[in-house]
Design brief:
The protein has no helices and ten strands. By secondary structure, it is mostly beta strands. It has three domains: 1-44, Low-density Lipoprotein Receptor (Irregular), CATH 4.10.400.10; 52-124, Irregular (Low-density Lipoprotein Receptor), CATH 4.10.400; 130-189, no CATH class. The strands form four sheets. Strands 7-8-10-9 form a four-stranded antiparallel sheet, with no helix packed on it. The chain starts with 11 loop residues before the first strand and ends with a strand.
Length: 192
């Protein structure tokens, strides 16, 4: 990890070439220093949440983004070892079969606002997510206790509820677990 020096602002660290980068960019799996020193001597054990895939470069991305045609990892490791089938073989559970039967597109492309099927069928019948049961905003829990939050949403395709805190994980497993099926998401936190 890079030390804080007097040449950079308080929220920055100096690269090996004395270039300054934001502290939050250190060991994030992406080189931000031109000399790549912000990704050297990083802790080797970086855990991902259960619903995340660990990229070859150490980044964590949503498992639902695997084999979706987009390089979410930045090193393309989330798009490797993906089988590309023609519709005659049938589409996988991770793919949407276009209505004309000539094309399979990644499931994440279904209802994304862009016609990916030549016949446009991946954008037909889409319904934007609507939260029908929001999670509680205030919850009293005894110290060391366990609590659970639920959220229900409806949409086409079925929404996946992903619990986040300021775009990061709420807390690490096993203390926090989350589950989503049928548009109902549950977050369980132990040892609160």
């Amino acid at each position: 990890m890079l030390p804080q020096t007097g040449i950079c602002r308080v929220d920055e660290r100096a690269c090996g070439n004395n270039e300054c980068v934001k502290s939050e960019y250190i060991c994030d799996g992406e080189p931000d220093c031109r000399d790549r020193s912000d990704e050297q001597n990083c802790p080797s054990i970086r855990s991902c949440e259960p619903n995340e895939f660990k990229c070859n470069n150490g980044r964590c991305v949503q498992k639902m983004w695997l084999c979706d045609g987009d390089d979410d990892c930045g090193d393309n490791s989330d798009e490797q070892a993906c089988s590309h089938r023609v519709p005659a073989d049938g589409c996988s559970t991770r793919e949407f079969k276009c209505r004309d039967g000539r094309q399979c597109v990644p499931l994440s492309f279904h209802c994304d606002g862009t016609n990916d099927c030549q016949d446009g069928s991946d954008e037909i019948g889409c319904v934007q997510p609507t939260i029908v049961q929001p999670p509680e905003t205030n919850k009293q829990v005894h110290t060391g206790g366990t609590f659970q939050l639920t959220c229900k949403a409806v949409a086409v395709p079925e929404p996946y509820i992903n619990w986040r805190l300021n775009w990061g994980p709420v807390c690490d497993p096993p203390r926090c677990t989350q589950y989503s099926e049928g548009g109902l998401g549950t977050l369980t936190v132990t040892d609160a």
